[in-house]
Design brief:
Bound molecules: adenosine monophosphate, zinc ion
Shape: globular
CATH topology: HIT family, subunit A
Mean pLDDT: 97
Strand order of the largest sheet: 1-2-3-5-4
Distance between the termini: 33 Å
Number of domains: 1
Low-confidence stretches: none
Order of helices and strands: HEEEHEHE
């Protein structure tokens, strides 16, 4: 755990957040500032700064986050309609919280390329 990391605190239950999904590797919860009718963040329990700093021995965690996104999408019933998975990375990528997270967005169509 990284002491000043807000997402570590959420993963550890130190900040009360209603979790939409949780297992040994990841935790998912609703984004505070939703950009779509459904906007879920999926984070690893163990602190990783970003996709940029993830180590090769963390590939299993990276894969797990994507599998969890697909599982949640299917479980919540929006997989057939479709969804968008986003990992913002570093400055130009728009990353503001430096604990790796997958945005799972659904409930409206999304443009591509993103703005
Ligand atoms: P990013 O810009 O990709 O780093 O995304 C960070 C996301 O975390 C933003 O969409 C924020 O709205 C969201 N966020 C920040 N703090 C919290 C929090 N305490 N609970 C839920 N979502 C948060
Ligand atoms: Zn963290």
């Amino acid at each position: 755990m990284s002491p000043d990391c807000i997402f570590c605190k959420i993963a550890a239950g130190e900040i009360a957040t209603r979790k939409v999904y949780e297992d040994d590797v990841c935790v998912a919860f609703n984004d505070l500032s939703p950009q779509a009718p459904t906007h879920i963040l999926i984070i690893p329990v163990g602190h990783i700064d970003s996709l940029d700093t993830a180590k090769s021995n963390e590939e299993n965690v990276l894969g797990h986050l994507l599998s969890a996104a697909a599982h949640i999408a299917r479980d919540k019933g929006f997989a057939d309609a479709g969804y968008r998975v986003v990992i913002n990375t570093n400055g130009d990528g728009g990353q503001t919280v430096f604990h790796l997270h997958v945005h799972l967005l659904a409930g409206r169509p999304f443009d591509f390329p993103p703005g």
